[in-house]
Design goal:
The complex is a heterodimer of chains A (107) and B (551). With 107 residues, chain A is α+β, with helices and mostly antiparallel strands. Chain A has 2 helices and 6 strands. Chain B has 4 domains: 105 residues, Sulfite Reductase Hemoprotein, domain 2 (Alpha-Beta Complex); 151 residues, Sulfite Reductase Hemoprotein, domain 1 (2-Layer Sandwich); 93 residues, Sulfite Reductase Hemoprotein, domain 2, CATH 3.90.480; 136 residues, 2-Layer Sandwich (Sulfite Reductase Hemoprotein, domain 1). Classes of the chains: A alpha+beta (107), B alpha+beta (551).
Chain lengths: 107, 551
């Protein structure tokens, strides 16, 4: 039986080249859109996602891999804590620029 | 301004080449992040929430017009068209790519700038009065001594891995605009009875989670002893500062623990050992550095300019700008001009590439090609003829740079906060924006008068909330943003620590609270009494009652 964790979690990191906040997807790659984030509901799932993420970190695709609490109350998952939610949304200022406008923004 | 010699150029160019190699090795995977992180930080490159951030040093806040144009070019080519001037008189770019950072550093090196020692546990950029060399209330221009300290501290082998970062501020004016008492070391330029220049020396100031005001060590340190004495001060700190706990590692903790008398005794003993070895530079070298900061060739002009007075009579905004954004210059007929980077609803300290280019052009036209950055996140044109003020203001105003609010309630210091910073607990910028929107009536602002609001998004205090007449500190309250209100701080010569007024408030409540605090002040002030004086006379209780309604 899968071990319980305190709540659903998702994996966030920063891309190596531009530092962009990205989320680990179910396919094992990274997406700038939090809507695509894989959600771990138990310890086994979390450890699997972390293993995938850390392999990507070792391969120098991303840095700062972190598991964070997920909020599943909306249509799509999002980080529960304001700090990681800000990473998902982008700055709340200069909303005419960057991924504050579109999550598909590329520099 | 100081101009690089061949050694300076070679040193900075070598550093760029070294970092280019380090970045290439990181991208190829030859360096791990753990190996690379301290290397990038030594070159001012942080990883923030959304991107890398490059912090570029602006030595003692002095920029040439050409350097400002390069900053504009970097913002345009490598970033998103803007940059952020900081509370340390530096500039930050919020969106550089790792692989392009060496190119940015090379462009900076080409105009005699760099990002060395803008991070890490070393001696950081020396800060000073933004009006240095251009103000009537000055004993002497502090920038030659700041440059001397910069050269001494850059790549100093003994002080590259201090217990914690180290900040030195120096002022040469009677009015302390450099917040020297809030620094690890504060220096005040003085002249003794014999007419010699020296320094009052203070140590152990700092903000963060343990705010402490620096204590005096020496009333007069001769110029010729400056570097050896600083060497002794740093050496005692380096040996005895705590390395077991980063929150207790700053010199303020050491000085507070051992007492300023004992710290001074140990420094003096160390200094006796080292003062006769050649640490201090010869008088000829001091004179050579001073020559770079020689006063510009300004022809004395009439202070009375009918065009200026006429426009001030007709235009209240210009009149306000004249009152708030210009200051007395040491040469008759001239003023220093503060270009406010605090427009209504704007982001404190931000400037677009077009605005930076314009400021560079205006510096060429009106201010001897010289620009300053203030720790209050504004830009300065230090040497402007009064007769040029109408034309200058008109051009600034057309570009959104004519806000007449320097020193007023909306001239808010704010750290980048959670919109950018990985250390922050809360956003700061939107609070500043909300306050400027609430207080959008110029006549009301003029009536309120001088009032400094300073906002930090976490206890690290980059927004100097401890020194705010009104300070705001963002705290994490169970994953949501909450704001503490502090009153009574000062970063000036009458330095004081702001005290928390009561429980934290949400982002709307904190703006309402500012309104209530200001209402108490307006209702209770005596004739000509400024906010801080009124607070000190009235005490906190009356403000607490207004904000929290405790009785």
């Amino acid at each position: 039986m899968a071990k319980k964790i305190t709540g659903p979690q998702l994996i966030i990191a920063n891309r190596l080249d531009d530092g962009r906040a990205v989320f680990l997807t179910i396919a094992g790659d990274w997406s700038p859109e939090v809507a695509n984030a894989a959600v771990a509901h138990c310890e086994d799932e979390l450890q699997h996602l972390l293993a995938v993420a850390q392999a990507s970190e070792i391969a120098n695709h991303v840095v700062s891999v972190t598991a964070v609490a997920a909020d599943l109350s909306g249509e799509t998952p999002s980080p529960a804590h304001i700090k990681f939610a800000m990473q998902a949304r982008g700055p709340s200022v200069r909303t005419d620029l960057g991924y504050q406008v579109s999550p598909n923004w590329e520099q | 301004m100081y101009a690089y010699d061949t050694y300076d150029h070679a040193m900075v160019n070598a550093r760029v080449a070294e970092f280019r190699d380090q970045v290439e090795r990181r991208v190829k995977g030859e360096l791990t992040e753990d190996e690379f992180k301290p290397l990038r930080l030594m070159n001012g490159l942080y990883l923030q929430l959304h991107a890398y951030m490059l912090r570029v040093a602006i030595p003692y806040g002095t920029l040439s017009a050409n350097q400002m144009r390069t900053l504009a070019h970097i913002a345009r080519k490598y970033d998103k068209g803007y940059s952020h001037f900081t509370t340390r008189q530096n500039v930050q770019f919020n969106w550089p790519k790792l692989s392009e950072t060496p190119d940015i550093l090379q462009e900076l090196a080409d105009v005699e700038m760099h990002a060395i020692q803008t991070s890490g546990n070393c001696i950081r950029n020396v800060t000073t009065d933004q009006f240095a060399g251009a103000t009537a209330d000055e004993v002497a221009d502090p920038r030659p001594y700041a440059e001397l300290i910069r050269q001494w501290s850059t790549f100093h082998p003994e002080f590259s891995f201090l217990p914690r970062k180290f900040k030195i501020a120096i002022t040469g004016a009677k009015q302390d605009r450099a917040a020297v008492k809030w620094h690890d070391i504060g220096l005040v330029v003085k002249e003794n009875a014999a007419g010699d220049i020296g320094f009052e020396v203070l140590a152990g100031g700092g903000m963060g989670r343990t705010p402490l005001i620096a204590k005096p060590m020496r009333d007069f340190l001769p110029v010729e002893d400056l570097l050896s004495y600083l060497e002794a001060m740093l050496r005692v700190y380096n040996e005895q500062g705590r390395r077991d706990n980063k929150y207790k590692a700053r010199i303020k903790i050491l000085v507070d623990a051992m007492g300023i008398e004992e710290y001074t005794r140990q420094v003096e003993a160390e200094w006796e050992k080292i003062r006769h070895i050649p640490i201090d530079v010869p008088a000829a070298e001091v004179a050579r550095i001073k020559s770079f900061f020689a006063p510009p060739p300004l022809a004395v002009l009439a202070d009375e300019v009918p065009d200026v007075d006429d426009l001030a009579q007709k235009n209240f905004i210009f009149k306000s700008w004249l009152a708030n954004n210009t200051g007395s210059h040491k040469v008759p007929g001239y003023v220093n001009v503060t270009i406010s980077l605090k427009p209504h609803g704007g982001i404190p300290g931000d400037a677009s590439d077009e605005q930076m280019d314009l400021v560079a052009d205006l510096a060429d036209s009106y201010s001897q090609s010289e620009i300053r950055v203030s720790h209050e996140q504004n830009l300065i044109l230090p040497h402007v003829a009064r007769r040029d003020l109408p034309a200058l203001w008109s051009k600034l105003d057309a570009a959104g740079l004519g806000s007449p609010n320097a020193g007023l309630l909306t001239d808010i210091i704010a750290c980048p906060g959670l919109d950018y910073c990985a250390l922050a607990n809360t956003r700061s910028i939107p609070i500043a924006q909300s306050i400027t929107e609430r207080f959008d009536d110029l006549k009301r602002l003029m009536d309120i008068g001088p009032l400094k609001i300073k906002i930090s998004g976490c206890i690290n205090s980059c927004g100097h909330h401890h020194a705010g007449h009104i300070g705001i500190l963002g705290v994490d309250r169970k994953g949501t943003e909450n704001y503490q209100l502090l009153l009574g701080g000062s970063g000036a010569e009458d330095a004081s620590k702001a005290e928390i007024l009561g429980p934290g408030l949400d982002e709307h409540g904190i703006v309402d609270a500012i309104e209530k605090v200001v209402a108490v002040y307006l209702g209770e002030r005596e004739d000509g009494e400024e906010f801080l004086s009124a607070y000190r006379r009235l005490g906190a209780d009356i403000f607490k009652e207004a904000v929290y309604g405790t009785h």
